[in-house]
Amino acid sequence: MAIRIGDEAPNFTAETTDGTINLHEYLGDGWGILFSHPADYTPVCTTELGAFANRKAEFDQRNTKLIGLSVDSVESHHGWAKDIEETQGSALNYPLIGDEDHTVAELYDMIHPNELATLTVRSVFIIDPDKKVRLTLTYPASVGRNLDEVIRVLDALQLTSKFPVATPVNWTDGSDVIISNAINDDEANEKFPGFETIKPYLRKTKQPS
Ligand code: BEZ
Q1: How far, in Å, is the centroid of ligand 1 from the Cα of 133?
Q2: Is residue 156 part of a domain?
Q3: If you measure from the C-alpha of residue 94 to the centroid of ligand 1, how many angstroms do you get, rounded to a whole number?
Q4: Same domain, 85 and 184
Q5: Are residues 20 and 117 located together in one domain of the fold?
Q6: Whose alpha carbon is nearest atom 2 of ligand 1?
Q7: What percent of the chain has pLDDT over 90?
């Protein structure tokens, strides 16, 4: 069964490069990103894992823990990690699940057999502090993910969780936002004085902070 936005993130306990991890305990009361890679010692995955490691401080700033997955063994991951450090300039600094029996991959519907028979596709799940899945992304093996987009959407999710706003097309941190239609003009005036009404259903304001 596919995981949908709003579902509770299924919990699991798995072996990782940082030892045995229970997902919900690992995430604690912060945000989390679970992402899968088709296989160890493959080129696109090597660049992706290195990029997540290089940008880990940006996830830390957002109170967000990373956890990757590949269907090879933890022992294989440790060997591959040396290549990641050598070629991408940063050592693995977050856990990588060894999902040889596909337990987690199946739980999260990460194997799409018409794309790859036994390997995972490139899945991303953003999980909020209530353990709700807030975003899913799925890429094929041949296309590496865009970490600017992962961070952009994480910022948007954290912002829209805190304030009654939504983010417009191509929003980036610091740009104007849309006032939620769940609040009326009186409430909007209190919360966002000076907001702009373009249409009654399209009201814009500076990004709150
Ligand atoms: C890659 O990471 O480059 C890759 C992994 C599995 C299948 C194809 C490509």
Answers
A1: 26
A2: no
A3: 21
A4: no
A5: yes
A6: 44
A7: 99
Q: Provide the pLDDT for residue 112.
A: 96
Shared domain for 27 and 79, answered yes or no, is yes
> Ligand 1 pocket by C-beta < 6 Å: which residues?
38-39, 42-45, 119, 141
Confidence of residue 44 (pLDDT cuts 50, 70, 90): very high
Q: Please tell me the distance between residue 124's alpha carbon and the centre of ligand 1 in angstroms.
A: 16
Active site residue 179: no
Q: Is 201 inside any structural domain?
A: yes
Mean pLDDT (the chain) is 97
Predicted confidence at residue 61, as pLDDT, reads: 98
pLDDT in tens, 105-119: 999 999 999 999 999
Range of the domain at 113: 13-145
Catalytic member of 9, 14, 34, 45: 45
From the alpha carbon of 45, which atom of ligand 1 is closest?
2
Cα–Cα distances (Å) from 39 to 11, 74, 156, in that order, read: 22, 12, 30
CATH classification at residue 114: 3.40.30.10
**Whether 65 contacts 94, CB under 8 Å:** yes
Q: In this structure, what is the dihedral angle of CA atoms 74, 35, 82, 72, given to the nearest 10 degrees?
A: 30
From ligand 1's centre to the CA of 113, what distance in Å?
15
My answer on whether 110 and 180 are in the same domain is no
The reply to whether 134 and 83 lie within a common domain is yes
Q: CB-based contacts of 114: which residues, under 8 Å, 6+ apart?
A: none
Looking at the structure of the chain, the number of domains it has is: 2
With pLDDT > 70 as the criterion, what percentage of the chain qualifies? 100
User: From the alpha carbon of 142, which atom of ligand 1 is closest?
Assistant: 9
C-alpha distances in angstroms, 205 versus 15, 95, 110?
Answer: 46, 39, 38
